[in-house]
Fold each of these.
Amino acid sequence: MMEITAAVLTAPKQKFEIENIQLDTELRPEEILVKIVATGLCHTDIAIRDQHLPFGFPGILGHEGAGIVVKTGSSVTKVKAGNHVVLAPASCGKCSYCKSGHPSYCISFFPMNFGGIRNDGSCPYHSHDGTGIAGFFFGQSSFATYSLVSENNVVKVPEDVQLEILGPLGCGLQTGAGTVLNVLKPSSGESIVIAGVGPVGLAAIMAAKAAGCTSIIAVDIFDNRLDLAKELGATDTINSRELIVSEEINNRLSPGGVHYAVDTTGRNAVINQLLGSLRFMGTCAVVGILPAEKLEVDSQFFTMGRTLKYVIEGDSVPDIFIPQLIELHKKGMFPFDKLIRFYELNDINAAVEDSEKGITLKAIVRMPQ
């Protein structure tokens, strides 16, 4: 057993509480103990707090962790003590989805990422009175000074890059960038619209620019975010409080419609506007958490070969894609550091509040060292 410090969520819709808890560090053969340096705050953490997605309480969230390997289980060969790593969502590595290069659609994705315990039913996280604490959120629960992870969801990263900024590559940033580069795969000169330019949407914009899209349209209701979108690669912006998106695109910005659309909002009205902005045979990818039970779209948008699809985690293979994003960042083609603001672990509730208010785009919570 070792004592660690963690931000624990004790009940739905409550603030995080900083607690010293016990972690059983007797590793399973495939497990790795990681000292967390910093963890990004993602909208999904807030969605869990508000119970839009299931997870146990008390529980440790955090799923954009970056850290240093402390020790490894007996069967681990990918990394060794001292390596710098980014943590990605858990996957089994054995099912047909994993083996075909789609670990985001792993057959065991939900129990492994939201179950809160090991596959064998054991729980290594406990309070001092012995109460079990749900862990392994997205295979990591990295709002803590140390995290237990499996070899499948650890990505070794170069040591010449600032480690504390890299965690968001494991979820939000790979979701936005991967949706463009791995799923939509635009050709140079094609057009795309991205709705909701928070961290995921801005990652999509940067990826679209890197892919050579010559018409990149950003949609949001906040002018300051739209200004940043232009700085990062958007060629045009639309404030959807002031203009009707589909009309603005079809009548002025891209007559006949755009090739691709990405929605990060999960909202019916926004998705319908994006579908109405597509050209014939265009594709709209939805990555946002859907707040309503039903997604309702106008049937006319499915004429002429248009497609609507939902994408998880950018449909990426993290071991391949995260290093690619780091290389793009080194070359100045994926400047995600412009989104970041740091908070200390004791200030995690301020990070949540600032993120919800739009004051901070991508909060990264640093662990006490």
Note: The first strand starts at residue 2 and ends at 9.
Amino acid sequence: MGILGEAGPRFRLPGDDFEARDTVSGPPPAWAAPTASGPLAARLSLPGSKSLTNRELVLASLADGESILRAPLHSRDTTLMIAALRELGIAIDELEGTDTGYGPDLRITPAELGGGVSIDCGLAGTLMRFLPPLASLGLGPITFDGDEGARRRPMRTTIESLRALGVEVGDDARGTLPFTVYGMGRVAGGELAIDASASSQFVSGLLLSAARFENGLTLRHTGETLPSLPHIAMTIDVLARRGVAVENPEPGVWVVPAGPIAGRVVDIEPDLSNAAPFLVAAVVAGGSVTIAGWPAETTQVGDDLRELLTRFGAETTLTDGSLRVDGGTGVAFGRSMPGVHLDLSTGGELAPALVALAALADSPSRITGIGHLRGHETDRLAALAAELNALGGAVTELPDGLAIDPRPLTADPDRPWQSYEDHRMATAGAIIGLAVPGLLVDDIATTSKTLPQFTELWRTLLGDAGSGGIPISGTGATA
């Protein structure tokens, strides 16, 4: 049996030891973020996309036949998704001999969906928004819960959507986790209007299961804004590749016909959003960073980095399936870098890395279109402002973003950079640490949510061009 056997995961995510140790010896040790000592010259390969892996796991579970996912991501978010689908009766097996370093390929065999189970969502938005519509096709009660932070994430749209489709959902009027979906084995479908202003995942979650509704689904978004549209485009694309043609007759309206979902063999692309801190590092430290396996065409929003980083003075080149970013002499070593005005309404998940970079610029920046980040793993706008200001920065929250007025940043040995249990806050701290000596990150292990190998890859990135990166106390922070 491989790393995701029926007895539970045998591989260790970076946070596993810390979680077990919390009840014995307190929080995990702080991590000393390496400071760049020279230009970079790194070439990296990254694990698979979390967004694609979890979408394909859901569709494979609803398909008419077997599917195989090649090079899927193995992280906390995907491990929880796999465990949840198994609880519902789906067979998910590893294929021996397929592990190239980031985990084996997976075979998914659909089955009748059961009930009478509890689903641990962790802090995974894809799980808590994608699985309740699928669970409504099962038989029996299915309870969803997660981490303490997950209980603060908005879920009312999912809950009310299912009720509007005739599915009973019990949440004691909270509009958040925990809640229970009482599946009846069928959903009529039809027409549905929702406000998905808080997250595009509300739309994607419904679209992924809609072909299995008896009458399909005509879904209309009623809110004034809809963030992260590329993620909906990704959902439509993976559905199309399985034979489900989603029509988009006008902005904010999607029509999914009832019909079969095909099993297929899927090659999962590397996670381009997880490439952000590594590519930004080239701009901070100078030199170059190359990410292998970069697709020529993709629906991943991380591909926007090719253009966005040029706004910060970097050069980007995509050739032969690799993306190279050249940062010149590097901001940390005196290269001038003006501030920017960015609208990241389509790519908010890139904001923490780009805000960290903007904090090192020579002039003010405004990054907008990211008000919805207040409802992510943490309130990312408040968190970024608090952590940069604690270092001496001048970051102000806007209604829809952040204003960054660069100031000299200085680490406080008595106050680590707080990750807020948010993987992108942790990696933002690592970026700042490249230019700010002595910076500590309180819980780098939270990167296990989507990239368990982060610290190992960060060390590889720096090679001989950095120092630090070890736990201040204890062991395991860089495992």
Note: Residues 1-25, 469-479 have pLDDT under 50 and may be disordered.
Amino acid sequence: MQHSKEVIESHVKVAIDKFDPYVLLPGQDAPLNEYDGESRRIAEKLYVGISKEKVEEIIAEEFTRSFGSTFTKEDCSSPALEIYENLNK
């Protein structure tokens, strides 16, 4: 199944906002678009058939780059699984 760029970005945004590693609570204690830049950059690197491990790696790299803290693939397992499952429906 093909997913449009907008659909992929939407799935990524939902998963990343839930992930919220800094407990900023987008839409509550932080702007609703708090992680939109990261979500967009992650979505640009995704494709149907990508492995869950590769999604973990992409998220970890993006959050490490964006926030200057080290994120491991294991740290990013939960949003990666959600994104992976949505991409490969």
Note: Residues 5-87 form a domain with the Endonuclease III; domain 1 fold (CATH 1.10.340).
